[in-house]
Design goal:
Layout (H helix, E strand, L loop, with lengths): L13 H12 L10 E3 L10 E6 L5 E5 L13
Antiparallel strand pairs: 1-2, 2-3
């Protein structure tokens, strides 16, 4: 994926996504939809599941990768 001249975007891990929720959304630094967002974290024994975080309330849960969730790619800096 390439955006804004950069091609090193990635999906955050479950912990990174939780930090985005806690710091950016809850403190009103930027806006997010009240929806589920995918993380890149998946269980080692299950290829069809991945962790998501509900940005309505911060709840983390595993969901089938076929679900229609949002993504918030990030870059390391």
């Amino acid at each position: 994926m390439s955006a804004d001249g950069y091609s090193d975007w990635f999906l955050p891990s479950k912990d990174e996504l939780n930090l985005i929720y806690t710091v950016l959304k809850l403190q009103g630094i930027t806006t997010f939809a009240n929806a589920n967002y995918w993380s890149s974290t998946q269980p080692s024994d299950e290829n069809e599941m991945a962790w998501q975080i509900d940005f309505t309330n911060g709840t983390a849960s595993m969901m089938n990768k076929g679900a229609n969730n949002r993504v918030r790619p990030v870059r390391a800096f």
